[in-house]
Amino acid sequence: xxxxxxxxxxxxxxxxxxxxxxxxxxxxxxxxxxxxxxxxxxxxxxxxxxxxxxxxxxxxxxxxxxxxxxxxxxxxxxxxxxxxxxxxxxxxxxxxxxxxxxxxxxxxxxxxxxxxxxxxxxxxxxxxxxxxxxxxxxxxxxxxxxxxxxxxxxxxxxxxxxxxxxxxxxxxxxxxxxxxxxxxxxxxxxxxxxxxxxxxxxxxxxxxxxxxxxxxxxxxxxxxxxxxxxxxxxxxxxxxxxxxxxxxxxxxxxxxxxxxxxxxxxxxxxxxxxxxxxxxxxxxxxxxxxxxxxxxxxxxxxxxxxxxxxxxxxxxxxxxxxxxxxxxxxxxxxxxxxxxxxxxxxxxxxxxxxxxxxxxxxxxx
Length: 365
Fold this sequence. Notes:
Elements: H1 10-24, E1 30-33, H2 36-43, E2 50-55, E3 63-66, H3 71-77, E4 82-85, H4 89-97, E5 104-108, H5 114-118, E6 123-127, H6 130-135, H7 140-162, H8 172-185, E7 190-191, E8 196-199, E9 220-225, E10 227-229, E11 232-233, E12 236-241, H9 247-265, H10 273-286, E13 298-300, E14 307-311, E15 324-327, E16 330-333, E17 337-340, E18 343-346, E19 353-354
């Protein structure tokens, strides 16, 4: 069994807090972060109740708050920060910030509920997406964790194929559970999301959930899955044919593969997000299957399986260098079957860094 993958060192978390400090300055004197994913990103803390205070001017004034259940854990994971032990972490840090006089206290208005806001006292300033903006660009430690998560997924898929577990007669659920077991055996902390295994006509359902449906000769089988390692998620889709392939299956597969290659090639720094989507979508549109491609091209991955930036026809903004994203076009023919091909990649100054390496050649198993 694989050994657990260690998370990035605390120095990475301090650097992230320093970069956030620059965004906070000019907006508020301090920022209280209460989204647990953002807390983990800034501190390494993984408990279920926490908040972190970031000073715009003084790193020594940063604090983390959690409750008494996590006294030992917060010392182990976030020992470089002074801990404020309280049940209501958000309120405790807002109160702490106000002890030095009138202070503009920023809070995550996209996270804090109306009810929670009523419990806060002070000069409050709503902010939105500051930490999420930082999270779009992955640091080297994050890229290595994403790469490891993708290796786990690649190896797990290869294992079930080599063991003859992706064959006619097995059910979607059996294949899904076997794949998940192989990921855990290779060091996954969790699965990224509910594994999708879709056979035959079910493969035309973009987010089909595994059922007792039996894989049959001549079926498309679409597998969308990922592993989480130290909190970082991989995401990959491969589509195969079982036993023998029909001409229409080859046609659809090659079309999606061409679109996927075009989408990957469009992943350049500062590229318009809509333009990246259009690079792949136009291939499918031109072939007359535009109405069978019913979702965006991709999304960011990291501590969450879906995070910024989103890549779709309604997206706004540009693609930052260092973003980790998926490219996953698909064509879905209701009642017949569908194909999706998906990779996880990191945007670089040169060719995108391909993290998922399982072969994408049309394959009959």
